[in-house]
Amino acid sequence: MHAFGGPEYTKGHGTQNDFVILPDPDGELELTDERVRALCDRQRGLGADGVLRVVRAGNLPDAPADVPSDVWFMDYRNADGSIAEMCGNGVRVFARYLVDSGLAQPGDLPVGTRAGVRPVRTHDDGRVTVEMGQAKIFGESATTVAGARVAGVAVDVGNPHLACVGDHDLDALDLSTAPPHDENLFPDGVNVEFVRPLTAGEVRMRVHERGVGETRSCGTGTVAATAAALHAAGQTTGSRIVHIPGGTVEVEITASGSTLTGPAVLVGGGRLSAEWWQNP
Ligand SMILES: N[C@@H](CCC[C@H](N)C(=O)O)C(=O)O
Q1: pTM of the predicted protein model
Q2: Is the CB of 209 inside a 6 Å radius of any atom of ligand 1?
Q3: Active-site residue numbers?
Q4: C or N terminus of the chain, fewer CB within 10 Å?
Q5: Are the beta carbons of 224 and 135 closer than 8 angstroms?
Q6: Could you tell me if 162 and 246 lie in one domain?
Q7: Which proteins does it associate with, and in what oligomeric form (predicted)?
Q8: pLDDT tens digits for 229-258?
Q9: Of ligand 1's atoms, which has the minimum distance to the CA of residue 91?
């Protein structure tokens, strides 16, 4: 057996939005953009949509001041190395990792993110519920698909989204490149959801994620999609079952916040090669 000798990792996913989890309680790993890109690369690395570093908030210099220092902080990176404020599927997988590795007790626990602390509840059946905060609709906008304008609403779920609700032919959508967006409304880029209402209370969605590309699920995206679907139906509160290519999640939006419930799976883990980590 090779003694790989590099950092520990675990691979996990939430509705097939997949992550490499790096435990680093003291914030000692030098997590460069290049290392993140290499880890997420599906040919030269482990392959993932993003990286979740597990660090005590007090040991991460850029953790927001309102996150208590002893809270476990999800230092999230997109596959291209960029930092995002929030990742809903990531929080579920992160909480599953904390519980399964003995860093937290099952039940209710807080997870620190760049969008603030997110209260989480782990369930016995493997699902995890995350309190996602308010999904704020802050404007109307549009993108273009195959030369045609597609209208949507701008939604802030801690990170930015353009959620387009309509009678889309989701199977025919080409999301191999990023749908164009209004740079004035979304100066830091945007995650774009195409949402098709099904029967009452259910929608289907595909997503192109900022810093990643098309993914099989996006937790914050499902919350944005639900807020947009409710808005299109003239409502501000309610719930939706959201079907994404990687599975199904449940979203509820109330007057004061929102919740996301879905599965969180740990696949396995080991150690990276120390040599690869030095020069990935
Ligand atoms: N997959 C995530 C969202 C990850 C961040 C996003 N790509 C961004 O840049 O905002 C989720 O499950 O919410």
Answers
A1: 0.98
A2: yes
A3: 87, 218
A4: N
A5: yes
A6: yes
A7: Homodimer.
A8: 999 999 999 999 999 999 999 999 999 999
A9: 12
